Batch of 4 targets.
Target 1
Amino acid sequence: MALRPVHVIMKALDAAAVGRFWAEALGWSAYRPGVTTYVGPHGGLVWPHPVAVGVDVVPVPDPKTPVKNRVHLDLATTSADHQAELVARLQALGATSTDVGQGEVPWTVLADPEGNEFCVLEPREVYRDTGPVAALVVDCADPRLMARFWGEALDWTLREVSDDHAVLRSAQDVGPYLEFLRTPGVKTVPDRVHLDLLPCPGDDKAAEVERLRALGATDLDVGQGDVPWTCLTDPEGHEFCVLAPS
């Protein structure tokens, strides 16, 4: 039994505009299957995608607070020229430079048009085969704890773990990485960005939710009402959802 990440949920006042931004940023397409804007690889809406983890932009009534998101995307580049070109192109699309205390680093920290932080990485060999999204990065207090929970939840391979950093990737070695960084501070506002998970074919959603609770997940009520998905938090309070197979 295991779950698979199928998309990153990103909340926005203007889901269509933010979806267009991320489609341009990732070189993908924006689709409007309903009230949300789904961003995924070209070639038509394929969901769940066998490799990529898409971005589903969901309209919400409230703007992002000034508090830094504790979940963000890292974008991959293939050369120094590619990194510089991508940063310039994203700024032309409405991204802004932002200071999250990173100091002098080889990557560039930006925010999308509604303030969601993300990084454009310098070229790194480890991300050569991830596609445009190198990693989903989660700020946390205890990377070892998070690696244990998420490794069991997803049945992903633990690539690296220390007191400061943990790295997971799918057992098939495809798609983006899931990374946990030890970061000062604690979660104080609801996550603006989170993962949606889907049971693997043949697995039972209710059984998967019970398994996650046994691993340390907690039920979450965000006013969702009677919906086919289940809202939970991981052991450090980061929200995520388990979707019902359709």
Target 2
Amino acid sequence: MPRPARFRPALSRRARLGATTVAALVAGTAVFGVGQATAEHSVPRTDKEIPNLTQVQDKIKAYYGDTVTADGEHYASPHSNYARQVRGIEAKARTYLSKALTRHDRAGKQAKPAIVLDMDDTTLLTYNYELQVGFHYTEESQDKYLAHTDMDPVFGMNRLVNWAHAKGAEVFFLTGRKEAQRDWSVRNLKNVGYGVPLDRRHVYLKNKENPPAYLPCGATCTTVEYKSGTRKHIESLGYHVVANFGDQYSDLSGGAGDRTFKLPNPMYYLP
């Protein structure tokens, strides 16, 4: 959803199921296989360079362990390859944070340690929404969904976040969701077990109508400018970002953070 809301506003911001995205079904990275168009040759010369859309969707469903309820709702399985991959990333993050937070305390630094996390497909799982809309995001469908439905937490992320907070890390959520979705987003985070402060000081959403003064790019910020600029703002408030979590490379680029953790997402790409 937006990372602009992670369900980003337009296909130009959110390239869905494109060749680059599909090439990274499991790892979430842009690695091309034989017969696929490359970055140097981005316009397919024949149909053989274009992944079959139906087959791509089937692979995505298999990766998430698609589970369908009696009323037709789709959910990811905690036993899926996706969940297994996420648990591995979380284990590495926990090991790193345990050491980083201990070092920070021993060093007696004035700045308080903090972690920054994206929302969609980093802390909240959009899979059910994606299946409902056929991997075709629109602002209207996203608003309708968020207003009445809570997304599940990304497997284990609520526990990791609560643990890090208990260990002394301040927790900040930084999403491309629009400001008008704040109440829905905060409600969702609370309802699925994120037991950390969720006020305006800790949850940042994109406000195009009244962009904050600390972002020189204002309403025209790219995702990287918006995210990195906000992390720098957080650090200016007396925090030190020891870890930054996101499912898109645009969540993680631009500095202001000691270490990044990339969560897998084969469903869409956000530059």
Target 3
Amino acid sequence: MSNSTTASTLAKRLTMSQPYWQTEAGHSLWETQRACLGPVVETRVGGHSLEMSMGPALMTMSAVSHAICWAPTRDLALSDATLVCPPDHLALPDRCLDAVVIHHWLEHLTDAHFTLQEAARVTADNGILVLFGFNPIGVGGLVRQWRKRQPQFPWNGTWRSANRLRDWLTFVDFEVERVDYCCFRGRTSAACSEYWESLGRRHNLPLGESYMIQARRRQRQAPVQRLKFGLKAPVSPASLGVTRSGSSARYPLYQEHLHHEHPAQTDLAQPHLTRNQQCDE
């Protein structure tokens, strides 16, 4: 992987994106994204997590004991707990991660849907999949239309809406739990305004420069086998009459048994039956 053309291309894209995160606009965006991610991952304790980030690490506030980062080449690995492999062929077993975070990589991959499929594969049944992307219908999207010929990050990527990624997640059997918009800048300020950020986050306005999608695997309902009750043959009034007559037919047998065991009681009971029969007549 490290010597392949794809790896060198991804490494170049990752290297070219780093100066943006050092600017005031990039650092402000990273802080707002980290604030969105914090409440989602800080309560997850133990297990394993994977972060595929175009910028600085976001999972520093997580309590996950084994945090793994991804890098296209060994030269870009920042720690020993770094996974170096193709993004669409993750060297991990199925459903082994409690949290997977993809930070803006889906905008810079040729086969982004394959990477999303791999991320869904390694996410545990009770795990969470988090996607960060630039919002094409926000204020930043309008600026991008003006700067669409600029090759610098982030304007050179393929921006997709949250609804488009929702369709992709449905294809891999995931459902979106929540979409949070963040980074609401002022007219002339490069940093995210505290006032506009508080207002936009409170009402979750789809005008932020970035969004965070929180998704989980669809829970399949266990198949329920219904029990079938009834008679093999159709029930008719005649059959119900036979049941009652069959029940009454056992009565003389009981009288015969009673006569052998207690003859006196049988003789006493016989006149009573005779009187009842006389009354009926």
Target 4
Amino acid sequence: MSRPVRWTYAFVDRPVALSERACAFWTAVTDTRPSEPRGEQEEFVTLLPEGADACVKVQGVVAGEAGAHLDFAVEDVPGFVKEARGLGAEPAAVHDGWAVLRSPAGQAFCAVPWQGESVRPPVVAGSRLDQVCLDLPPSAFDAEVAFWSALLPDWSARPGSRPEFHVVEPPDGLPVRILLQRLDVERGADGGVDGPVSAHLDLACGADVDAVRVRHERLGARLVARHPHWTVLRDPAGGLYCLTGRDPDTGGLPRPGS
């Protein structure tokens, strides 16, 4: 029997030496305030919205580059972990009450206890941080689509707007969805990307991508690239993320003619 996900968190993973810089930027972007640091190395900070439940956290990482991952809040952590392992996930670390796992391609995610979160934060200055995008080599793409679709059976898994995308969208009310993106080349190949599977954050901005970009640049982000339907930025802590033309209320693409 599937253990339903009750809430989702998007993690901003940044080098520990730059985590304060990351917190300052992302609290401004999301109109939140930082919690007190916690963890053995005070590496975790929750971004607290006013009048809603948090769905974004910052983690200072000792090893690895800037990236992102998801936490799934569930009522039965051991049951969720067992199901994930049965589908091909590997345990990375087991803690008191929560666990870190890796997908078949190596993407980290966590199973944590649900603590009653239910109120999604609002759209902020025309945008909403609502998506974690997994950047996958071609050889891993189909297996990752199968894994996430099976792990989250009550979510809607479907092909995206382009052949290299696959969307895994949660039921109404959950704040963060998943986008699987197939890269053009294998990692480590000529012109490819070195290192393990990576992930980045996406914000839905609707028709306000340029206005949101200007705001983020004023907060310290730098423009990396512009594409027809998304813009790539780098935050002050070195992490890449995207501003997309998706509707910040629904997460979907704008309707034709709108």
